[in-house]
Amino acid sequence: MIHRPDGRWEGRYSVVVDGRRVQRSVYAAREREAVAKLAEMVAKRDTGQLQLRGPRLTVAEWLDAWLVDCQGRVRPTTLQRYSDITRLHLAPSLGSHQITALTPQHVNAFLTAKLAAGLAPRTVAHLRAVLRTALTAAMATDLVTRNAAQLARPPKVPAPDRKDWTAADVEAVLAAVADTDEEAPVAVSLLAGLRQGEVLGLRWADIDLAGHSLQVRQALQRQAVEPGSRRRDFVAVEPKSRTSRRRVPLNDRLDTILMAHRAREAAKRSVLGLAPLQAGEYAFTATDCRPIEGTALTKRFEKRLGDAGLPARTWHDLRHGFASRLADSGVDLLVISRLLGHSGVGITATTYTRDPRAQMQDAVARLG
Q1: What are the mean pLDDT values of the chain's consecutive 10-residue runs (368 residues total)?
Q2: Neighbouring C-beta atoms of residue 106, cutoff 10 Å
Q3: Quick count: other Cβ atoms within 10 Å of Cβ 303?
Q4: Quick check: 216 and 246 in contact, CB under 8 A?
Q5: At a CB cut-off of 8 Å and minimum separation 6, what does 105 contact?
Q6: Looking at domain 59-151, which of 2.130.10.10, 2.40.30.170, 3.40.50.2300, 1.10.150.130 is its CATH number?
Q7: Model's pTM, two decimal places?
Q8: What DSSP element (H or E) covers 124?
Q9: Beta-carbon neighbour count of residue 81 at 10 Å?
């Protein structure tokens, strides 16, 4: 075992690849963890379980194999995004390198070129993140011993310029969509903090008006019916993370809006000659009572704001408005995190922590 200058422990073992003996390493923060990892890799080597491939495997070849392995492991929309980034950016620029020869310097040059070509820093950071994920998978199969994308310098991404919401802002937006098909879904995001896909995935069984709460169980997406197909259909998927499955309380304002919306949905079904509203029906539907397509809903919402002379806002701004008003009211970040369904309170703290200077002064003043 070697205790490295960076504080990690390294264990080394050898394997035979293409007739040559090659040294490989495992790393861990603690010595006993490194010993366990080394024992595991030696056992896999000795039993023929290591997937050893020659050094001539290119980055492009690995990316193709990785995308195949991702099928069924990630959401179809995520897989499509990975595929697009690989096809348009990673493979053309880095694909010819042998995967074992890819260095952080190669990745740094790639990121710099993408920034120079005019891509936004956030987009370039996402390219790096996808490459890092692919190389992490390569490390897990013992193809490489380090992650060149992880070691590369990430681009500086400016913090999003999100405007805080006031009570007047909330009233103005709700007034702009009042008595329209957009009112109820807008209100659920603005007054309960749901993501758009979570809103569209709600069924009436998930909304307890008498109990003043709703349950997030799924999200609704429109996906290709099969890989490569242009035909798309609505698919209910798991929420974004485990903590996204949550119960959210409803205030009186949202209760009233949802009760009026339910009456309109029932009347719409009656006019169309459909069966009475059932608990399993989607809560928010188009004019034909089919599910709503998110992009179309967003465009209608943005048009309502424009017609009312209000500043442009994205749909995600509604969720941000919900959270920022809670933060401004002094609600504990853990509570906000649970309401939003964040995977950890750190995400909430990074986005919604206010300037602490006033709180620091008040805290010291309490000591007398």
Answers
A1: 78 69 75 87 76 72 89 82 95 95 96 96 96 93 89 87 84 96 97 96 96 96 68 83 93 96 96 94 95 94 97 94 90 93 85 61 66
A2: 17
A3: 12
A4: yes
A5: none
A6: 1.10.150.130
A7: 0.70
A8: helix 121-140
A9: 14
